[in-house]
Each structure stands twice: as C-alpha cells, then as structure tokens.
Design goal:
Blueprint (H helix, E strand, L loop, with lengths): L5 H16 L6 H13 L4 H13 L3 H13 L7 H13 L6 H15 L1
Length: 115
C-alpha cells in the first residue's frame, strides 16, 4: 500500500470514518484498530489525519462515503482491494460485531470496487 497516492490514502481514511461512524458513534475499539494500523505502517499517517478531521467535524458518514467512493471510482485500486476490505471489516467488527449499517457500507464498497 505504500505506493498509493496521497489522495487515495486520504480518501480511504474518510471511508474508514464513514464505516466507523455510520452506526452512530466511533467506538474506542474501532479507534484502537486504526491506531494499530497507523503504528505499523508509515503510509497510514495520512489516513489518520483525514479520519480525525472528519471525526472532529462530525461529518455525515453516508454523504462522506458517497463522495469518497467517487474518488475510488476514478482509480484502479484492485491491488490493494483486499487490504482495504480487511481493514474495514476489522474496524467494523471491533465493537460488538458488524452491525447492519456497517455491513451495508462495506458491501457497497466491495461492489463498487469490483464493479
């Protein structure tokens, strides 16, 4: 993932926020997973910044997800698809399992990237 453009990493941080927030609140367990990825991967610093900006602003997760997916629609990220999907699943599952709102966004992410 190191070779991803800054724009894609930034956008993925927004998608992560959308999945974490779509059930109403970003949970501590979800943050722990994100921080673990950031600690283990230098490329993830940009991801943390965009995640935290959206979190501070309280951005609507559904609107943000749709806007962010438009960026992914313009880029071929198949090489990194599994890594992105795994991280979304891990974050969503971190607090009591994946709820229906999270599952819907993850499924939409999967469908659009494979589209």
């Amino acid at each position: 993932m190191i070779q991803l453009q800054k724009e894609l990493i930034d956008t993925f941080g927004k998608i992560l926020y959308a999945v974490a927030k779509c059930d109403g609140e970003v949970q501590e367990e979800e943050l722990a997973i994100i921080h673990q990825v950031i600690d283990e991967n230098q490329w993830a610093q940009e991801l943390e910044l965009s995640f935290e900006v959206e979190r501070e602003m309280g951005t609507d997760p559904i609107e943000l997800f749709e806007e962010s997916m438009e960026v992914f629609d313009r880029h071929d990220v198949r090489v990194h698809y599994e890594q992105f999907l795994d991280l979304l699943e891990n974050v969503a599952e971190a607090h009591g399992g994946i709820v229906s709102q999270e599952r819907a966004l993850i499924d939409q992410f999967r469908k659009r990237l494979l589209g």
